[in-house]
């Protein structure tokens, strides 16, 4: 399971937290964590989290679209694909993860209107945000993600501990969608 560092964590803190936990992939959630991407060593994989508005519009820049002013002044076109990002000495990400504006809240957004560009990550993209055993099948049909992510949607009445029956129902719904 990926470790989510503090939203204010620079690259050295992210690396230290991952190394201490013995994990090799970090979920970069929040502006500061995403800005740390270029400073992460190649041995540490990354999941880059994007935020979607209620209407499904992506609100977070893709990792390959951030170009500094000196590159723009020199006529750079920006990073177009994951391969451009890597070929120019930049980091790419394993997955993009698209979540709603209030992660962990169970609030969804318009999955059908969501347009996640292909080629901005190595392995594809993950859908998160308001997924439950009852909604995940429709969300998969509408958005066609490579992976789904769930937390509060399979929690028990207390909202934290996972309900084994809801987890099983979620997995069954994902398998049935597919």
* Spatial gap, N to C terminus: 23 Å
Low-confidence stretches: 66-89
Q: Identify the overall geometry.
A: globular
Give the count of structural domains: 1
CATH class: Alpha Beta
Per the CATH scheme, the topology name is TIM Barrel
The run of helices and strands is HEHEHHEEHEH
Biggest pleated sheet: 5 strands, parallel
CATH architecture: Alpha-Beta Barrel
CATH superfamily: Aldolase class I
- Portion in beta strands: 5-15%
What is the oligomer described by this structure?
single chain
Instruction: Please give the count of helices.
Output: 6
Q: Output mean pLDDT.
A: 83
Folded structure, characterized:
- With 178 residues, the chain is of the alpha/beta class.
- It has a single domain (11-177), classed as Alpha-Beta Barrel (TIM Barrel).
- The protein is 28% helix and 12% strand.
- It contains 6 helices and 5 strands; from the N terminus they run H-E-H-E-H-H-E-E-H-E-H.
- The protein has helices spanning 11-21, 31-35, 69-73, 82-87, 136-143, 164-177; strands at residues 25-28, 45-51, 95-99, 124-127, 147-148.
- Strands 1-2-3-4-5 form a 5-stranded parallel β-sheet.
- Helix 5 (136-143) links the parallel strand 4 and strand 5 (147-148).
- Helix 5 (136-143) packs parallel to helix 6.
- The model is unreliable at 66-89 (pLDDT under 50).
Short structural description:
The protein has 178 residues and is α/β, with parallel strands linked by helices. It is built from six helices and five strands, in the order H-E-H-E-H-H-E-E-H-E-H.
